Amino acid sequence: MTMLAVKDIDVYYGNIQALKGVTVTVEEGEIVTLIGANGAGKSTLLKTLSGLLKPKSGSIEFLGNSIAGKPAQGIVKSGISHVPEGRRVFANLTVEENLELGAFLRKDKKGIEADMKKVYDTFPRLLERRKQMSGTLSGGEQQMLAMGRAIMAKPKLLLLDEPSMGLAPLMVKTIFEVVKDINEQGTTILLVEQNANMALSVASRGYVIETGKVVLSGSADELQSSEEVRKAYLGGH
Amino acid sequence: MKRHSKAFWPLLIAALVFYAIVQGLIMTDMLGAYHTNTLIFIAINIILAVSLHLVIGITGQFSIGHAGFMAVGAYLSAIVTMKFDLPFVVAIIVGGLVAALAGLIVGIPSLRLRGDYLAIATLGFAEIIRIIFLNIDYVGGAAGMQVSKMTDWTYTFFFMLITILVIVNFTRSRHGIAALSIREDEIASDAMGINTTYYKVVAFVIGAFFAGVAGALFSHNFYIVLPSQFGFLKSVDILILVVLGGLGSLSGAIISAIFLTLVSTFLQDYPETRMIIYSLVLIIVMLYRPQGLMGTKEITDYFRGWTSKGGKDNGKDTIT
């Protein structure tokens, strides 16, 4: 079943067009990755999906309902949760408070408690540090917290923006394992990455974005073996 | 998400005992008018500092037009008591409500702005408010308006207590943590589904309400209310209280309100050097405590260190 259908959207920052007629679909249960260079428009697409930006034209349907131009809180409520680029944890709040804020729109206390436990099971490091200010965590721990916080909203679709940014290789591996885990537990994932190798190894399909346009799409295997992608993003020969 | 502080009841009782002692001293004439007035001043400044703390320290919106809302409260309450002969309590509440309304009108358009832009916009609005009063003959224009002295220790103390209680409760509630998340990172807060505009406006309106209350107490403490009392410098004075106390610390705002009011009161005996010494105090504090007297900590954080033996954790459970 198609979970997310983005059709032909144009997005502008003032006068500058950042996305030009982008069309992307995500099926339920998939991990789909968007790869591309700096400034290609990957993060712009995620911000548009989560309501932080509004498309000028085109349509976005999530589970059959149009969400283009809806305010962020409505979109979070409908089941899309965004882990923004650069983690953006609330530095002067504790780990636990960050997680509570992730569940801000939820009213089911028991469900929130259960999900909090689930997050702590997934990231035992966060449990150890739950009373600590999140600004004092390491980069990898902050990434875990940002992901945990997004899971607390109980999303159907999780948008991950560059989870590997600035992390040690070992930590990147851990984070990607968790991405797979979260997906196996039933959350669909749209993953933006510069680390194309890593992203394609967990994703089932991918899109390549260049200067605001989708230039290539296909299954992860197809993309990994595509000459163009290898040259441009995988550093292969 | 409600966080309780063990120190809440002891502190409240201590505050009430303090009130009773002072009230006793006033009634037995042991505390003269001069000292009573200093206490009233301190309490008014605490209301101003704590209400601005909610806007700047908690929600992170850099507003420097607090004196504008104070002016609204001062004038509106003066109109209620002097022109309509209604009781002072009614006047204080009307002053607060109209200031809150002014906060809403100013807040909705200007809170879309961030950082410096918001500061300039709020500064501009405060000046507009002052100039409007300057040009209304009904309230005396530049010559000001005659007001009877009605503010006393009891009114001031209880409105101060209400201000602190409301703002502490707001901060500890679900709304407060939403406001805090805006201060920490507005984009992330948006992405969590928090209606950031709504919470910014709510904090701004509550802040304006209590600034209006402080204005009402302030105007009825003198015999006259003048537009020039609510200029840019007044806004800066209030801002200094919050920054000096430590952005994000309510007890810091209270301590610095007490400290700076005392400093400026004692310095009144040295009019030639008053401003120099006052400025020097500010510079020295900022040099040695750039994060403010309290940083983002609260006085009860230190209490907890004593009461929970060995329970060392780095986090803070309490905001107050």
UniProtKB/TrEMBL annotation, chain B:
Sorted UniProt keywords: Cell membrane, Membrane, Transmembrane, Transmembrane helix
Pfam families reported for this sequence: BPD_transp_2
GO molecular function, one term: branched-chain amino acid transmembrane transporter activity
UniProt KW Transferase keyword: no
Annotated localization: Cell membrane
Chief location of this protein within or outside the cell: membrane
Membrane topology reported for the UniProt record: Multi-pass membrane protein
Record keyword Membrane present: yes
TM stretches of this protein: 7-26, 38-56, 63-82, 88-108, 115-133, 153-171, 201-226, 238-263, 275-291
Annotated GO CC locations: plasma membrane
Cross-referenced InterPro entries: ABC_transp_permease (IPR001851), LivM-like (IPR043428)
Protein name: Branched-chain amino acid ABC transporter permease
Source organism phylogeny: Bacteria, Bacillati, Bacillota, Bacilli, Bacillales
